[in-house]
Design a protein that fits this description.
This protein has helices at 7-11, 88-91, and strands spanning 31-36, 41-46, 51-56, 63-68, 74-79, 97-102, 107-113. The protein is mostly beta strands. The protein has a single domain, classed as YVTN repeat-like/Quinoprotein amine dehydrogenase (Methylamine Dehydrogenase, Chain H), CATH 2.130.10.
Length: 125
């Protein structure tokens, strides 16, 4: 994983979320999902190849925090609303809510509208 030490600089990401999966989903066991807030995408990095193997687009405006379903089949990503702290211009999104992504296909299968500024997500079986 020596190539991953410069991941932040190489991808120019705002936030890096390491997906440590204990779900038994072997396809995900060697992936890191990186939330790119400024481009509203998610980069999927193979730890075996030390490179981006796919980019999930149209996640939603200002994606932030990511969590996986217990079975590893879905990813849930919060979408920022109007930020009240930090740099509002950089952090504020236009569609506060939650995107649901099919992990196998990498497509957004649902968007849940929420109010405020969602900043965190937890998944409970």
């Amino acid at each position: 994983m020596s190539g991953l030490k410069n991941l932040r600089g190489n991808l120019g990401v705002m936030a890096i979320l390491l997906a440590t999966l204990f779900t038994g989903a072997s396809a995900l066991a060697y992936e890191i999902w990186v939330v790119n807030r400024l481009s509203s995408t998610i980069s999927v990095v193979s730890t075996e190849r030390d490179r981006v193997v796919r980019t999930i687009r149209k996640v939603g405006d200002k994606p932030d925090i990511l969590a996986f379903s217990p079975d590893g089949g879905k990813a849930f990503v919060t979408l920022r609303g109007r930020a009240t702290t930090g740099d509002p211009k950089l952090l504020s999104g236009s569609e506060p809510g939650l995107s649901v992504i099919d992990v196998r296909t990498g497509t957004v299968i649902a968007k849940v509208k929420l109010g405020g500024d969602p900043h965190g997500v937890g998944v409970r079986p």
